[in-house]
Amino acid sequence: MTIQRTLIFGLVTVLVLAACQSAAPSTAAPASGVPAYPAVPTLDNSPGSYPAPTAAQPLGADPVKVRLPVGYIPNVQFAPLYVAIEKGYYRQAGIELEIDYSFETDAVTLVGANQLQFAVVSGEQVLLGRAQELPIVYVMSWFQDYPVGVAARQTDGIRTPQDLAGKRIGVPVLSGASYIGLRALLSAGGLQESVVTLDVIGFNQVEALAAGQEQAVVVYVANEPVQLETQGIPVDVLRVADYLKLVSNGLITNEATLAADPDLVRRMVQATLQGIADAVADPEQAYQICLKYVENLSQADTAVQKKVLTTSIEFWKTGPSAEAPGYSDPQAWENMQQVLLDMDLLAQPLDLSKAYSNDYLP
What we know:
Helix content is 33%, strand content 15%. The chain is α/β, with parallel strands linked by helices and 362 residues long.
């Protein structure tokens, strides 16, 4: 395999959804009151529905301050968090939430050391962290499908994983969700990594494919394909989720927090799920809330950003076979572990029963 490192990163890739480049970082949520919003549809506990949040702390109790790393810059793809903040769901749950846009690997380490209670990370990071004896636990699934894929110009005829053989592929870095997803697709096509040429290109997938620098690029399905289509470049997208069920982005905590304050975990999960439910039920309202939280979003291409949001929502929805909103599929964990074993990123199987829990869902 030839690997041309056009960009070198000292940190593992961001594993939460890579967002559009136009959104600039902002580390603080706006200090505003909670406006009155139109009511959203009533949601119950049936599959695909979410319960309404409940008051969690006695009146007068101080809220618990939670700094939540999400792994990327402010973006519409974090709309459920913005909605839950703006509508007061975290506050009703006795939580004062601050979103932290730092790298995911830092978050895994900090949560594992009990310096932070929660973070949003992708499933493979949980297993890799536990292999390093970090006592992190995945307690809520956010994305129902793995959001990574490979995009190629339609004219290049890359429509199955087998078609990747002999191709030059741009990947952000050789680690993290993007790389895991690529390896899963190669495996689905019966291909070894040695039959492709990988270029490390950072988060420049759109530019690299548009310029003809790469024949294919590893993308987040809700993001780069939307941008490419908007630029008049029709693409075919190989979605990892169409070939293998893997654990994607969700909420983690640590064993110490679970032992000391399981009710906090339940309240955090419930408020976050309600934010997801509201964003799914009313994308336009969610987008308007995002305008307050994502710097320069008002100057961005509104049609593109709304398309990114609506495409993301498809990954958040629970299907009719889901056990419950936020549910972790045991088979997805088995599949994820096997991919990591095949890549030699895990030396031996882990006790998966300790890596995740469905016990804290509403």
